[in-house]
Amino acid sequence: MQNQNQDLINTSKNIGINNWSIVNDDVMGGVSTSEITLNEKNKLVFQGNLSLENNGGFASIRLNISEKNLDDVNSFELRFKGDGNIYKLRLRQNNSRVSYSCDFKSKKNEWMVVKLPLEKFIATWRGYTYKEYADLEAEKITSLSLLISDKQQGRFNLEIDYIKAVK
Question: Long-range pairs for 95-99 at CB < 8 Å and ≥24 separation?
Answer without folding.
Answer: 97/125, 98/123, 98/124, 98/125, 98/130, 98/133, 99/123, 99/124, 99/125, 99/145
